[in-house]
Write a structure and sequence with these properties.
The complex is a heterodimer of chains A (271) and B (434).
Chain A: E1 2-5, H1 13-21, H2 23-40, H3 46-66, H4 76-100, H5 105-108, H6 117-144, H7 150-180, H8 184-197, H9 219-232, H10 239-264, H11 267-270
Helix pairs in contact in A: 2-6, 3-4, 3-6, 4-6, 4-7, 4-8, 4-9, 7-9, 7-10, 9-10
Chain B: H1 2-9, E1 16-26, H2 27-31, H3 37-46, H4 48-59, E2 67-78, E3 83-88, H5 94-101, E4 109-115, E5 118-121, H6 134-144, H7 149-163, H8 178-191, E6 196-200, H9 208-224, E7 228-232, H10 236-242, E8 245-250, E9 253-259, H11 260-274, E10 279-281, E11 290-298, E12 307-309, E13 314-322, E14 331-337, E15 342-347, E16 362-370, E17 376-378, E18 381-389, E19 392-404, E20 417-419
Parallel strand pairs in B: 3-7, 3-8, 5-6, 6-7, 12-19
Antiparallel strand pairs in B: 1-2, 1-4, 8-9, 10-11, 11-13, 13-16, 14-15, 14-18, 17-20, 18-19
The chains are: A mainly alpha (271), B alpha/beta (434).
Chain lengths: 271, 434
């Protein structure tokens, strides 16, 4: 098992093999992430439930009750929560992945392991949060009497995968950019917050009328729309829009991966 | 088991073969490490032509960027079971060399062939997260170093026993002392049983007893299991006692390599001739929370001097700047003789223990006085005094001193110290009766 250390090519098949061989380390990074996150908050794992729940309550009061924002005939709490759930998966994964390299400077400059593991584990630990927060959605759906049909249930995992692919693609790109440009850390939360308002989370895309196609540029639009269609069955699933979301996400993942690999060799020198 | 087969099958091939590796950094890069996106964009907007010109130059390969070679055509090979020391002044390329071997940074040119599993002993708590308990950190650290969950579970008890911290297993690591941290880190690294273990300057911390235990363990591991060890250290004593062979790095190249005693002597001689002034002033590094800014040796009259009369006290004055409030660190002075053995080792917190945790912001001076007198003195010869901050091996400042007995106060005998007027002769009295 001789290893040859020399200047590497940007893309090679052996990187994937190595990544696969390090899946146990991926598990450990995810596990550590969760442990730390839940240890540092007083109420621990309840935080994963509490945070989206309170957001849902506030949004329901202000946008639903007082703002009277149309929600496609779906009760506003369950409407906004279904959107929030996926949105949080996306935004939290993206923010964490973008800071994952800079946040682990110590390790990057001292130990060798496939660097890709860092942004990837950020996605996995947020998936756990997502799973916990989904319990509230199930509760809300039971309360409002919605029963998803079979196609809908089968579609949900695919939607989650698209969301992860999208955040991972952007995460690969932004995390490596963050190594060089440290102000990404401050700029990004602002843009993610803005992005919430150009994603149909708190409103239905129908309120934009003929302009609703603009939202389709954002992959999360297709995902959230499809999720609502699948869960509540009040609208047909827009397969074209969903395909577009998936395609954009995959392209971003490939580009993000290439950029990450291209800059990877300088991480330890720059960070 | 796997590895044994390897060794049996390929008995002549060295375990590490370094073939002409070089590593360059562009100076512009290393000067402004953290650029902000805002500044980069503003530079393009403000001076678009300069930006384009620069890009064009780089594109045709005529960039005016200065290049710094951290490693220049380094060649060596290391056989299985060898313990090899790596020494050299700060910035000579030792750490870069280890980083290349450890695949943290890749060489600009050349290649290294490594025939075995390589692992490094992490710096104090590098892989540790302060919020996690000792138990959790052992698992995580083991995983980073390449162990599987099963392997860690198997070796868990041995790791804990070696680190001697059974009762602190479920305490968050943030409550550990730095000594406990090293103990745990060392224990995890040693138990992961790599074919090649890289040790970079980690044993500087931790108490003497544990350091000794670590050195013994390294020795044992290397001898019993035929493991290969690369040991980078400023502690020439440790290098001497551990390594048969040593590589000396100077300005990115291996200039001397061979039997340890010989290499250390070469190194100390060169160092002593390179710096002959009694004062070293260091440039301010504002990004460091604390640093040594000046080190000076004064003779008994208070004048800066590197040649000290035997039997007379001399002082080492360390001026340092603290840029954060309530900083906790130690200033260490170490005196090494020309054979590489430590003659004395002192910390500025030995007397003023409150300095361990509280140092106010500002510039301070700590002065150490060697209490030589007509009774005792360092033996004549050449020594080096190194001053450093415990947690920052790169902070090391080296000054030479020469002890000479021009006044012929002592009898000249071998040994580290000279002793004068120590004999007393008296006739035994008769026991008095009550």
């Amino acid at each position: 098992m001789a290893i040859v250390i020399k200047a590497k090519k940007t893309l090679s098949l052996s990187d994937f093999k190595e990544l696969w061989a390090s899946k146990e380390l991926l598990y450990f990074f995810t596990w550590r992430d969760l442990k730390i996150r839940y240890k540092q908050t007083m109420i621990g794992v309840l935080w994963a439930l509490f945070q989206p729940f309170i957001t849902m309550v506030i949004f329901t009061i202000f946008f639903g009750m007082f703002g009277k924002i149309p929600s496609d005939n779906i009760p506003y709490p369950v409407f906004v929560y279904s959107g929030l759930l996926l949105w949080q998966l996306f935004s939290a994964s993206l923010l964490q992945a973008s800071n994952s390299l800079v946040g682990q400077q110590n390790l990057l400059t001292k130990v060798y392991f496939p660097r890709l593991i860092l942004p990837i584990s950020s996605i996995f630990s947020n998936l756990v949060d997502f799973a916990v927060a989904s319990l509230i959605l199930i509760g809300l759906m039971v309360y409002y009497g919605f029963v998803p049909h079979l196609v809908g249930l089968l579609l949900l995992p695919i939607l989650v995968i698209i969301t992860c692919v999208f955040s991972l693609g952007l995460g690969f790109f932004l995390s490596s950019l963050n190594v060089k440009y440290r102000d990404i850390k401050y700029i990004l939360p602002f843009f993610v917050q803005l992005l919430l308002f150009v994603t149909p989370v708190i409103y239905s895309p129908s309120i934009l009328g003929t302009w609703s196609w603009v939202l389709a540029l954002n992959p999360m639009t297709g995902v959230i729309k499809a999720a609502r269609a699948a869960l509540f069955g009040l609208q047909p699933i827009n397969w074209f829009l969903l395909f577009l979301s998936a395609a954009v996400s995959v392209v971003l993942l490939v580009l993000g991966y290439i950029y990450f690999k291209k800059t990877e060799r300088y991480f330890a020198d720059l960070i | 088991m796997n590895n044994d087969m390897h060794k049996a099958g390929a008995p002549v091939k060295p375990i590490i073969e370094v073939r002409g590796i070089s590593k360059s950094y562009s100076i512009t890069h290393s000067n402004e490490r953290y650029v902000s996106l805002r500044d980069s964009i503003m530079n393009v907007v403000r001076a678009p032509f300069r930006f384009l010109k620069q890009k064009a130059r780089v594109a045709i390969g005529r960039s005016s960027n200065d290049v710094f070679w951290a490693l220049k055509n380094v060649n060596t090979s290391i056989n299985a079971g060898e313990i090899v020391g790596v020494i050299g002044a700060n910035g000579a390329g030792k750490s870069t060399f280890l980083k290349v071997l450890n695949r943290i940074t890749e060489p600009t040119s050349g290649e290294v062939v490594v025939r075995g599993k390589i692992s490094s002993l992490l710096e104090v708590g590098t892989g540790f997260h302060p919020e996690l308990t000792g138990r959790e950190n052992i698992f995580f650290n083991g995983a980073i170093l390449g162990m599987t969950r099963k392997e860690i579970a198997q070796k868990f008890d041995a790791i804990v026993a070696f680190a001697e911290m059974q009762q602190f297993l479920d305490t968050p690591v943030k409550r550990y002392s730095s000594g406990m941290n090293v103990r745990l880190a060392f224990s995890v690294a040693v138990h992961m049983e790599p074919d090649i273990l890289l040790i970079d300057e980690v044993l500087a911390v931790g108490d003497a007893a544990f350091q000794k235990k670590c050195l013994e363990k390294i020795h044992e591991v290397a001898k019993r299991d035929k493991r290969t060890i690369l040991f980078v250290s400023h502690n020439l004593d440790a290098v001497q006692s551990l390594c048969e062979r040593t590589l000396l790095f100077e300005k990115g190249e291996i200039t001397t390599e061979g039997e340890t005693q010989h290499v250390i002597k070469t190194y100390l001689n060169r160092q002593a001739t390179a710096v002959q002034q009694a004062t070293v002033v260091l440039p301010a590094l504002p990004e460091k929370p604390f640093q040594i800014t000046q080190v000076m040796i004064r003779n008994v009259q208070g004048a800066p001097e590197t040649t000290i009369e035997a039997g007379q006290p001399f002082s080492v004055e360390v001026t340092y700047e603290t840029r954060i409030e309530r900083a906790g660190f130690l200033i260490i002075l170490q005196c090494i003789n020309e054979y590489g053995s430590t003659v004395f080792f002192v910390r500025d917190t030995d007397v003023n223990t409150e300095l361990i945790t509280h140092r106010t912001r500002g510039v301070h001076t700590s002065t150490f006085t060697f209490p030589a007198g007509s009774h005792i003195s360092l033996n004549t010869g050449r020594y080096t005094i190194t001053a450093r901050i415990d947690s920052d091996p790169a902070s090391e400042v080296v000054l030479p001193i020469t002890i000479s007995d021009t006044l012929k106060r002592f009898n000249h005998f071998p040994g580290s110290i000279l002793v004068g007027d120590a004999w007393k002769n008296s006739e035994n009295e008769h026991r008095r009766e009550k």
